[in-house]
Amino acid sequence: MVKTFEELDFRNTQLGELVLRRRKIPMLDNEVVYEIILNGEFLMSSLFHAVEDALADLGLAAAPSVPMDVVVGGLGLGYTAVAALKHDRVRSLIIVDFLEPVIRWHKTGLVPLGSSISTDPRTRFIEGDFFAMASHPEMGFDEAEPGRKFHAILLDIDHTPKHWLNESHASFYTLEGLRILRRHLHPGGVFALWSDDAPDREFCSRLEDVFDGVQAHTVSFPNPIRGGESSGTVYVAVC
Asked: 1-59 pLDDT, tens per residue?
């Protein structure tokens, strides 16, 4: 039986205190919700994942109609990865996450989607710094195949292009950082980004300077806690 509130894991990490918890929400008929919290900030809740799903669906819909090799930056509770794996054209999926405990939660089945991701033969977890890898296309995201290119890169790590989990991520969102990222992609490849905010015109302009086609999709979803709707943004940029 699921307890009303349970802390499933607590770790001190290089980014600060990381917590995985599970709780029931009485106002939602005791729906069971999983939450990831880093330094007191919510990173992910299983109650809200429409934008994470859309990140995969919108990004891969814009990618080439070929068997696709895909990178997901940021694992979280696994919603973007699971949505990507539902696409039959995905032949390989590399998931990069900086936090070893998050990867372990999935491998051990501590989070609901973990087993479906970790048992899919197309999937490989890499413990590492997505942004450091992104800045070195000569090495790239696959140390077994340096310089390997991909058909899609789906990123869900920072809150927005201006609200980062770590200051070291800032350079990624500059013109130069985006130009370097493009070098990881095949011609026609896609970079898609999750954001917990409305479309940022300045960031769209930067993407347009680097990529051939750019769209900022507003994704709305019901918010039973606050009432009404909330929304996020999925940026899709095509080479």
From this structure: 678 889 999 999 998 999 999 999 988 888 999 999 999 888 999 999 999 999 999 99
Of 168, 186, 181, 167, residue with least CA distance to 235: 181
Domain boundaries, the chain: 5-44, 48-238
Q: What CATH number matches the domain at 48-238, 3.40.50.150, 3.40.220.10, 3.20.20.105, 3.40.30.10?
A: 3.40.50.150
Going from the C-alpha of 236 to that of each of 1, 6, 14, 159, the distances in angstroms are 42, 37, 30, 16
Backbone angles phi, psi at 45, to 5 degrees: -135, 140
In whole angstroms, give the CA distance from residue 204 to residue 220. Answer: 19
With CA atoms as reference, report the closest residue to 71 among 168, 218, 190: 190
